[in-house]
Specification:
By secondary structure, this protein is mostly beta strands. It contains no helices and 22 strands. The chain is globular and about 50 Å long.
Amino acid sequence: MVMIASPVQATSLVVGNVVPWTPAGISSPMFESHAAFDPLNGDLWFVRSTPEFKGWYLLTSRCGKDGWSPPERPSFAADGLEADPWFTPDGHSLYFISNRSTDGIHRKDLDIWKVDRDANGRWGTPLRLPTPVNSDGNEWFPRVAADGWLYFGSKRAGNIGITDIHRAKSDAAGRWQVENLGPNINWAGQQQYEAALSPDSTYMVIATGDGLYESQLVDGAWTPRAKLSAPINLNETEIGPLFSPSGKSLLFSRDTKGPLSGEFFVWHIHLEQAWPPRCGPQ
C-alpha cells in the first residue's frame, strides 16, 4: 500500500485496514454509494441505484435511538438522475449533480447544482451553476476545497483524457474561471471523474476508470498521481470517496460482484475506529 502524508500529521504513519460498513436500514441488495454526513444534524445522505449502478437517486436517513430511519427522498428531489451530495462545512449548502428538467426541458447531461437551507433547516430551490462550470457534457462529484476552489469531474471539449478533473472559482462579480488540473492528475485516453479532498485540502484521492489514486499538494501544485494498492483497489470498482472530519479515515463504495452489489467500505488509514458514527443501541 502507498504510504500517505496524512492531513493529520502523525509521528509514525500507519497503514490501516479496510472493513465493510453495512448499517442496518441503509445496506440493501441495491447499490449504495457516495455518502455524505450532514454537519448540522448528522443525517446520512447517499445515492442508491440498481445493482448495475444505474438510475441514481438521493436518499437521506436520520439517526435515532433504534438506528437509521427508513431512507427518504430529499424535499427538493426532482425528475432525472441525482447523485454525488456534498455539504459545505457550515452545513448551510449542499452541492449535487442532476439532469433534472429545467424550463420544462429534460436535460440529457448531468450538471452541478447547489441548494441552500434557511435558519429553520428548510431547503430552498436548487440552482444550477452557470457556464463555464457546467458544460454541454457531464459534470460529476462537486467538492469545495478549503481555499474556495470547486473541484469536479467533467467530460468536455479540451480535456486531456476522456473525462478530466477540473477546478473552478468565482470572483467578487460572480465570474467563474475553470482550470484543468493538468497531466499530473489527468491522463490521456483515461477516465478520471472524482476528486475527494482531505479536510485541509492538501491530499486528494482520485477515482478513475481503473481504481483509486492519490496526490499531494506540494508548493501549490498537485504531485503526479500514484495508484493505491490492495486492499483499497481490490477490483478497481471503488467510487465515491469521503474523508472523515479528521482525515484519518476514508469511506467509499465497491462493487462486491456478489448478491449485495455495491456496498460501503471504510479505510481506517490511522486506525480511527470511531468513524463512520455508530447509530442505534450502543
